Amino acid sequence: MTTAQGIEFIRNILDEPKYEYFGSDADLGTVFREAMREAATTLARECWHRGEKEALRPLWAEVTLTLSPAGVGTMPERFLFIESVRSNFQDDTDKFWPHKYVSPGVFARRGNRTPFEPGIPFNSPMAAQYYGRAEYTIVGGNIHATSNGIVSTPNKQIKVSYIRVPTISQTTTDSLPMATYIHPTICDKAAEILYRKEHPGDDRSAIGSILDIEGALYKVMRGQAQ
Question: Fewer Cβ within 10 Å of end Cβ, the chain: N or C?
Fold first, then answer.
């Protein structure tokens, strides 16, 4: 579904008083795009927590970052979730080792202690379990990661896999974010968001019904469907 089709989908859901409430046709494009962006972000978070990776596949990205002298990798765009951080633990190899997430406070505290305790290699399974090894944290939207200080030239590259923040293109022929099968749900959720805003007239309980398919099926099973 394209952006234009998504806008038309929402227009078909809205009743006349609500449509007129948002103003002229020229204003509706911006209003609808913002509602779809908010809806897509909400749904992306829900899919992530449910483990519904197929829905998030178009939002998945991976980038290789060069760490600054302070061990900071600057992310190129906003993200919802970090899936993994890996480091080329030796400068002369393309092997990347997974880092373990720790909170910013823990990461900062461990950074003030002696890193890379002798006897536990950086690339060993034990490395991510102890302070100063193969760890990362997130501060201000960027990645802070440890680097291998026991090699002659410390590694300075990390691979970051992440889920991007959904965006709604200004180009009407571009596709909506997330998997295709989620697009109608984005529009339905966007219409629900618009209806929840203060407006004249009665609310419509049917809006957002796509989001509660399980509840509807349960009512049918209980003989409660209207």
Answer: C
Residue 209: which of 183, 191, 182 has the closest Cα?
191
User: Which residue is associated with the tokens 């966007």?
Assistant: 190
* Residue 162 CB-density burial (10 A; 0-12 exposed, 13-18 middle, 19+ buried): buried
108-124 pLDDT per residue, tens: 776 654 444 545 555 55
pTM of the model: 0.75
Q: What is d(CA 162, CA 82) in angstroms, rounded to the nearest whole number?
A: 4
Of 153, 138, 123, the C-alpha closest to 73 is: 138
Tell which residue, 214, 163, 178, has the closest CA to residue 43: 178
First to last CA, the chain: 31
Helix or strand run (H / E) with residue 80: strand 79-87
> DSSP labels for 123-163?
TSTTGGGSTTSSEEEEETTEEEE---TTSSS---EEEEEEE
pLDDT tens track for 133-178: 688 999 999 999 887 655 555 567 889 999 999 999 999 999 999 9
Specify the residue for token string 């060069």. 66
